[in-house]
Structures are given as C-alpha cells and as structure tokens.
Amino acid sequence: MLTSSMEDYLEKIYELMKEKGYARVSDIASSLSVQPSSVTKMIQKLDEKQLVTYEKYRGIVLTPKGEQLGKLMKQRHKRLEEFLRMLGIREETIQKDVEGIEHHVSPATMSALNNLVLFFDQNSHCLQEFNDFCTELQTLKETEDERK
Amino acid sequence: MLTSSMEDYLEKIYELMKEKGYARVSDIASSLSVQPSSVTKMIQKLDEKQLVTYEKYRGIVLTPKGEQLGKLMKQRHKRLEEFLRMLGIREETIQKDVEGIEHHVSPATMSALNNLVLFFDQNSHCLQEFNDFCTELQTLKETEDERK
Ligand SMILES: [Mn+2]
Ligand SMILES: [Mn+2]
User: Fold this and answer.
1) Which of A2, A107, B65, B88 lies 20 to 30 angstroms, CA to CA, from B97?
2) What is the topology classification, in CATH, of domain B4-69?
C-alpha cells in the first residue's frame, strides 16, 4: 500500500527523471516544498519498497516497478486535470482539487472519468448541450437570488 | 479549517441527529469504527470550534453552525455518490472513493459535478450516447487484448 505522500514523491521523481534524466534530493525538495531531510527519509522508505535506488553519480533512480507507478500517478494527475478543465473549473482550483482527489480515485472511477472526457471530446454536440444547460441553470439561480 | 476527520464526524453526528434526534459517543464510535476515547477527544476539538455542545440528558448536539456544516458534508457525500452511480461504478467502489474524494472537492467542482448529474438526468439521449460510447470502447479494448 502506498501513502498519498509516497504517490506524490513517485509522481515528482518520475517527472524530474523525464525532464532532466535524474532526480536530485534538492530538486525533489524544492518542487514538493519540503525539507531535504524529509526527502531523504522518504527515499529510504521507497528504497525499502524497491521503488527507487540510489546510484553513484546519477542520484535517485526509479526501479522499473517505481517507474511504472510514477508513470501511472502522472497519467492519473493529467487525466483528472483534463476532466476538471472540461467542466470549466478555474486552473487554480483544478490544481488544488487534483492534488487531493488523485489519491482517492479508484482505477474504475478513473477509467469512467476518462471515458467521459473522450466522449465529450468526440461528441461536441453533447458538450454544447451541457454548457448551454449550465448557463441556463446559472441564469435561473441569479434570477432567484435577485428575488430574495 | 476543518480536517478530513472533523468533516467525517460532523457528517456522522448530523446523520445520527436526523435519525435519532441525538448522537451518543458510543453510536458515533461504532458507526465511524473508532474508539470511544477518540470520539471524546474529537468532540472536545469540535466544541472549541463551537460546532458541537454537550447537553445534559440529550448528549452531543450540533450548534447551528455545526448543523449547517454537517448538512453540507452529508449533501456533498450524497451528490458524489449519485455522480459515481451515474457513471456505472460498483456500490462498493463508490463508498470507498467517496469517503476519500469528498474532503478534497472544491465547491466549484462539486457544483459542476452536480450539474453533470442533472444534465444527464434531464437529457437521457446524451446519457444513452455516453453509455453506448463506453460499451464500444470496452469492445475495442477486448478485441485488442485478444490480439496480444
Ligand atoms: Mn499529483
Ligand atoms: Mn462521508
């Protein structure tokens, strides 16, 4: 079982490795806004779970299993972003919501949300109808608020 | 700021009060699967935040502010359930996902998900198209898996 924090680390290390080819403690610390000492402790835990190793000269490296999980975390994050973006949520709120939600979404729910994004992408008339529906609800709500 | 655990307690106390008119430590403990001593500690914290009070003979009672929040938690939980149910997620998975997700969904996202449920409810042709789309994706995936 991975904790939410472990998932965040795997996602971040995967990201850094894709960007730079390696992940340094200092880079992980600054991008997750944590102390380097916390990174070192977490790396030990992930090492025990055989998800990362430490290579001389190269630094922290994901094992194949760690890379597979990191990729999954990154993909889940990206897909949840896409879903909320489709719903018209503000970027700032998207980032905050996704950071919390991502650790609690089962593969079944993730797959259904992804299907919903694909569906609206390929059936723009339904997305249009949905957006019109939202505008209408909003107008109704505002009229009601004015009446009060 | 409320912690996830505080939100769970407020939701549960609200539920018990609606059901029975009162919330006893033992009922809260058994329905949240925690020790009575944990409930007592949490009630103290919620009391400090003026969300619950202890009334002689009646037991734990939500303050008006606590009741408002408890109702909101309960509503958010119910609406997330409805959303995942609409996506065809299994009941067991729904319960697990909602218990985690609910604490991380912003009001903006909650409102958008709720609109989506209302939309599909009132535009069943779009829901039908979505369900057909999912079946098609599933068939494609199975055909691909067979080829491997
Ligand atoms: Mn993330
Ligand atoms: Mn709940």
Assistant:
1) B65
2) Arc Repressor Mutant, subunit A (1.10.10)
